[in-house]
Every structure is written in C-alpha cells, then in structure tokens.
Amino acid sequence: MSREFRAVTQARILDPEGGTLSDPRDIILHEGRIAAITAPGEVDARDDEVLDAGGRVVMPGLIDAHVHVTASTADLARLGETSPFLVAAQAQQLMGQMLLRGFTSVRDAAGADYGLAEAVDRDLFVAPRLFFGGKALSQTGGHGDVRGPGSQIVDDHACCPHIGIVCDGVSEVRRAARAQLRTGAHHVKVMLSGGVASPTDRVDSTQFSDEEILAIVEEATGANRYVLGHAYTARAVNRGLRLGVRSIEHGNLIDETSIPLFREYDAFLVPTLVTYDRLKAEGAEHGLPPASQRKVDDVLSYGLGALKLATEGGANVVFGTDLLGGMQQHQSREFLIRAEVASPQQILRSATTTAARLLQAEGELGVVAPGAHADLLVVEGNPLEDITLLADPATTLAAVLKGGRQVVDPAA
C-alpha cells in the first residue's frame, strides 16, 4: 500500500443503512480511523496527504463474509496435500486481488489460520482484514471429509492445509472446537449438511447429532464467539438455527418455514450464488472432481429463490461468494446475480452494515462514521441507483483505502 491519508475531501458519503447520499463533506482521518466528518473547505486539498474525491461517491469498504483464501484449487483433497508454504503464498495473492476489488474485510469460512491473520495484522502483505476460523468441523463422511470412498487415512495435523478436521462424538467435537478457539479464531464452522465439493455425502443429508452441534455451540459461546453452519436444505438449516448456529452458509434449499427462525434467533443467511454459477461454467477447468460436478445442479437453480424468500421475509442477509481456485476472479459478479431479486440498498447493506453486525464489528466496519476504520471506496457513479457498478471494480473504483492507506491509485 502507498501513503497514508489524513483526509478525504469533497466526498458524497453513501449511507447503506439509510440509503442516502450526503452533500460533499470532508472526512478527517487519524491513525487509520475516521476522526470526524466536517463541512468542506476546512482541509487544504493541495496537501499530498489529502485525497480529493472530487464530488464522487465515497462508501464503506465491502465485506465478503464467505471466502476461502487458501483454496487455490477447487480440488480440496489435492489442496490438503500441497505445501503449506505454497498455500500461504497463493493466499497472499488471492487476498491482494480481493482488496483491489474493494473488499476491505473478508471472513474465511475454513482454511485460513492465525498465522495468515497475524501476517495481515502486521501488514506483511497487502490484504483485506481477515476474520478466520481455522479448520471446519466435519463428521466422518461429512462435507469436510475429502477422502474418497476407498481412502482410509485421515491427516488432521494442524499444519496440513486441509480445510476441515474430522471429528465424531461429543468429546471429539468439543476438543476440535476448542483447538480452533485456542488459536484466536473469530468463529467456528460446522458442516450441518452435505455439500458440492465433498465426494461421499449427499447434498440433502444432515450431519452431526443434536448433542454434537450443541456442544460446538456451547464451546463457541463460552469463548464469546459464534458458530457458522454449512447447510442447504430447510431441514438442515432449521435444525441448526434451533440449536444455536448463528450464521447459515448457502441455504439454497430453504423454504417458508426457515424465515421465521432466522428472525426469531436474529440469525444470518449468507447466500453464495456466484460459486454455483461458476462451478457450472468452469468448475472442471479449475479442478472440481467429476462427483462434485454432478452435484452442482442440485443447488444451482434454487439459489435466487432462496435469496428472494429471505430478503422479502426480513431475514438478515449477508454478502458471500465461496469461490474456489481460479474462479475467485469472479468475486464481484455476485452483485450482478443478486440484482435480479434484491434492491441496490438491500445488497449494499448485505456487504456493509449487516455483514459488520455478523462479524461483531458493528460501528467499526461497514460505515463511514467517526470511530470506524478508514476503509473507504471512491466510486465512479452511484451504487444506490445501479449496484452493478460494483461488479466492474477495475472501471468504477477510483480509489480504495484500507485503514486510511491507499490501495488503488486514482491516477493509475
């Protein structure tokens, strides 16, 4: 990243929650945070430490709440056999590209560990803020068990870059959850149902017993953290919500029975529609095994309907993508897909204020307000009128700031 700014001037500030744009204002920055917002003219715009937005829209940095920064391939079994040094180097590149697209914070949904998070915190490379959970918890034969039906060996060593750890029974899942939380994990992920990228389970299966899920939730809650659950069907989703899972990932096959539960428990749905779109189009090219390719159609056609149901039903909906390997370049395409059933403001909230609340960073992320991190996007055009602007960041992002430091140079 380049120089640090002390102000952004002539900024029309976008408020995702209120759905409004301000008149031009000056944003005063100090030590990576927003110190104040003032009337224009109080800052010398000729100062090299001042970024002149020139009347453009300035909005909060985006949040993607479902990424896999270590997944440089869609073949997750092969990923686990890769050198962890190579995985880390590839993760650095993948995260840098996310930041250039305007995603100043990301939540990793299995794979990233405390080492990557510390590297980001220490500014060892250019990357979004990283919320990590370590390895996802999977039952034997579950979505995080990447063995084929003939494989017997399970290597759960902490340094191996598998995205999951296999555990069975209450004592094992407690130990596995505690192992992730011991490293400072921001959340614990549990596989509540089958999935596309795993070789031996059905998408419509349910996974783990009630007692196992309750134990995981208890451990996360005791550490003042929360559980996110991979699930597709209403049966798996509803069960997870009743047992205390706070964040449901995907949820393509939910129905009308799910929405009241999201509202009752103030839980969050994180649809990841672009990943199925891309897995269908190019999954094989990027290493998705044939058995997984056959599962894509099981969830692809229902995703938009689930998003529409949740949005209209008043559930907390958060932006996520879940892309793997070379398909991660399509991260911003999620805006195009969601625009088919959701309004620009609804989508903006999902990638800013609602996402920040999920990440337990309300007031610090997702807003342009005093006290928040100075994670800012300078945008050509108005995303409140046309959300698809954010689907083309190379054209529409005039500048990206993370912690007040410039990522994208407006002159470049």
From TrEMBL:
Keyword set includes Hydrolase: yes
Top-rank taxon, per record: Bacteria
A molecular-function term among this protein's GO annotations: hydrolase activity, acting on carbon-nitrogen (but not peptide) bonds
SUPFAM superfamilies hit by this protein: Composite domain of metallo-dependent hydrolases, Metallo-dependent hydrolases
Keyword list, A-Z: Hydrolase
Domain Amidohydrolase-related: 57-403
One Pfam short name: Amidohydro_1
The name this protein goes by in its record: Amidohydrolase family protein
Native source species: Aeromicrobium camelliae
Lineage, highest ranks first: Bacteria, Bacillati, Actinomycetota, Actinomycetes, Propionibacteriales
